[in-house]
Design brief:
By secondary structure, the chain is of the alpha+beta class. It has helices at 44-50, 109-122, and strands at 10-19, 26-33, 37-43, 62-69, 77-90, 95-107. A 6-stranded antiparallel beta barrel has the order 1-2-3-6-5-4. The two termini are 24 Å apart.
């Protein structure tokens, strides 16, 4: 299989808040992270609430993610990004994976870079 991603992905487990257009935020878990995007795991209910008129997020739909890096990684603080949905897949009766690419980093670009460098040194997070 040919890897088409521009940036290496790192497996992570980071708590995140996701929202759309300033609406209420929902909890999710970031399970993969790179310089260009992320993969989230969330509940079916949250995936449906984020969908704009559909049953789940569709490719091209936008949402925001905010996550916190822990002090133990040497890059504590938050990362806020605008995301564009690449895919939403059901992984079980009640769980979904949402893959997204970054459209813009609002805050924390240096923290993201430092965290990913830390991940590379750890060979995973």
């Amino acid at each position: 299989m040919i890897e088409r991603r521009m940036f290496p992905r790192f497996p992570v487990r980071l708590r995140a808040e996701i929202s759309q257009d300033g609406d209420e935020s929902f909890e999710a878990v970031v399970i993969e992270l790179s310089r260009g995007g992320l993969s989230l795991e969330t509940t079916k209910e949250i995936a449906e609430l984020l969908a704009q008129g559909g049953s789940v997020l569709m490719p091209g739909e936008r949402f925001r993610v905010q996550l916190e890096f822990s002090e133990s990684t040497g890059c504590s603080g938050s990362l806020k990004v605008e995301c564009l949905t690449a895919h939403a897949r059901r992984i079980s009766q009640s769980r979904y994976h949402i893959g997204a690419r970054f459209e813009g980093i609002e805050t924390g670009e240096a923290r993201l870079e430092a965290y990913l460098n830390w991940c590379a040194q750890q060979r995973g997070c």
